[in-house]
Design brief:
There is one protein chain. 75% of the residues lie in helices and 0% in strands. By secondary structure, it is mostly helical. It is elongated. It starts with a helix and ends in a 10-residue tail after the last helix. The relative contact order is 0.10.
């Protein structure tokens, strides 16, 4: 009986020690894991604007915005050639969750502006509201692009162009996501700025491919191509604004979407 009791005590002690060592690491890993769609739709950091000072409230808004960035790639993933036969439900759910979180951020920011009495918090809150709008417009544009890609890719004549556009846009969203992430480096930001330049090689090659195909594509298919090109270029424009905002924030500047 004594041996059994001692054995049980050792097991409990060992288990407790392991949990004390592993538990905090599990918490850290869980904190780094992207939210599920249902969790993403619910604000994690926003409280009553009266409960915190304006500067802290502005930092919380930025943290909520940063939760959106890793999920933007999911929205456009369904447009990739290897995913077109699969259900689009996940991408659609992600789009809705991002939109719901954006609305919550916008309400909180508006309330903060209404209550603020100093110029600096109001100016910063206004810039953050512009950033929220850019994220929401990008979310909508990526979703529209994915829908168009699914329809347009059914035409063999334009499937290669649709594939090229989809893969290019996904690569751009991924690069910008890394440039805006917690582990970003100056090189990540420089690469994202180069890729989202309106004169970048990616966009130039896509435009040239479309122009070369004008005489070989039916009018209806060509309409899809031009529509997708327009949505892609708008997405790139929004991505560039987010990158410029990050660059301006890192330098303490006041770019079009600056953090401060």
């Amino acid at each position: 009986d004594r041996l059994a009791t001692l054995y049980l005590a050792l097991q409990v002690l060992t288990g407790l020690c392991l949990w004390l060592w592993i538990g905090p690491r599990i918490a850290v890993l869980a904190g780094r894991r992207p939210d599920g769609d249902e969790a993403l739709a619910t604000p994690r950091y926003l409280f009553d604007a009266d409960a915190v000072d304006p500067e802290t409230a502005l930092d919380l808004i930025r943290r909520e915005q940063d939760r959106i960035v890793p999920h933007l790639g999911r929205v456009v993933e369904s447009a990739l050639p290897e995913n077109r036969g699969a259900s689009t439900e996940r991408a659609e759910a992600t789009t809705r969750s991002i939109a719901a979180l954006g609305q919550a951020i916008d309400r909180f920011t508006t309330d903060l502006i209404d209550r603020a009495h100093e110029r600096r918090p109001v100016a910063r809150a206004t810039r953050l509201m512009i950033r929220t709008n850019a994220l929401m417009e990008l979310n909508a544009a990526l979703s529209e692009f994915a829908v168009l890609a699914h329809v347009a890719a059914t035409s063999p004549a334009i499937a290669p162009i649709v594939d090229a556009m989809s893969e290019s846009l996904h690569a751009l969203v991924t690069a910008v996501g890394e440039a805006l992430g917690d582990d970003r480096t100056g090189d990540d930001l420089a690469l994202a700025r180069a890729l989202t330049d309106d004169r970048s090689g990616i966009l130039r090659q896509l435009r040239e491919k479309v122009v070369r195909s004008d005489d070989l594509i039916e009018t209806e298919d060509l309409g899809f191509v031009y529509q997708m090109t327009g949505v892609l270029e708008r997405s790139v424009w929004l991505l560039r604004h987010l990158v410029d905002d990050e660059a301006a924030s890192g330098m303490g500047g006041s770019g079009p979407l600056a953090r401060r």
